[in-house]
Amino acid sequence: xxxxxxxxxxxxxxxxxxxxxxxxxxxxxxxxxxxxxxxxxxxxxxxxxxxxxxxxxxxxxxxxxxxxxxxxxxxxxxxxxxxxxxxxxxxxxxxxxxxxxxxxxxxxxxxxxxxxxxxxxxxxxxxxxxxxxxxxxxxxxxxxxxxxxxxxxxxxxxxxxxxxxxxxxxxxxxxxxxxxxxxxxxxxxxxxxxxxxxxxxxxxxxxxxxxxxxxxxxxxxxxxxxxxxxxxxxxxxxxxxxxxxxxxxxxxxxxxxxxxxxxxxxxxxxxxxxxxxxxxxxxxxxxxxxxxxxxxxxxxxxxxxxxxxxxxxxxxxxxxxxxxxxxxxxxxxxxxxxxxxxxxxxxxxxxxxxx
Length: 355
Prior knowledge:
GO terms for molecular function: calcium ion binding. It is found in: Golgi apparatus lumen. Helix 4 packs across helix 8 and helix 4 packs across helix 13. The two termini are 43 Å apart. The chain is built from 16 helices and 4 strands. The chain has 2 domains: 218 residues, no CATH class; 60 residues, no CATH class. The chain is mainly α.
């Protein structure tokens, strides 16, 4: 389903999916609530070759959780320094106002939906470019002969080596078609990865991935086909009646586990409230009470121009206290936790000084 063009959109008409291609050439058990980058362990090691569970700038995680940090990712891009929990408040306020000035293209001290839309697209492109660079480094690690194509067996050897297996022994056994002794969990991961490998292998399939195909293997948001595959996986996991679409009860179904205390009940209530809002206001485009794979795919597409405008309007509405459909410095500072993940105090007293 093609992306809908928003009326009055001032973005250049070229397809944003082309932007992903340009960047590629230029850079050659569900928990009780959302997934959060602040809760995830530190950065992935350079040797890590598994597809990431979290995709920056994408609204759902690979397992169907809401991306709790999405608004911060599309507002800050890669520039998150200065908004850590222990950051000096004055410095954080000043930096937030610098960002405000960059978003406010016409310098009228107000951020419009179109200005925010442009900014979201720009920050999403930053995440795309970062993913391209990481993928290129990982591709080199799994392409030992440097021929520009990686076979499934080459990847399998590197993957098992990263899990503690002897790389030479694994390579020898694969070469001689001998049985590999791996535990049940690792075998299951391998089977899922091979299925994903097949999906990333553009026709005619040869089980050899080019650098571009390997990028879509690691980051499905870079490929329409792989994004569709990711959507199918999410629907498969959440779909309880097998109709290959999601009803509201299926989408907001509570996490596995029994609520044992009030804190657990509060967490579950938050889960239901947030997912219901997302389903009804954003994902179910025609408001018929069910979400099709096509609707979910459009919702998750990070390079969808209409989505960027919708997101811009929603972000403004969160902090627009004077209801003028714009963001002003005082409002951004007051709602800093929404935009940056950090709560900056004394916003009104400091706004003019920081600006």
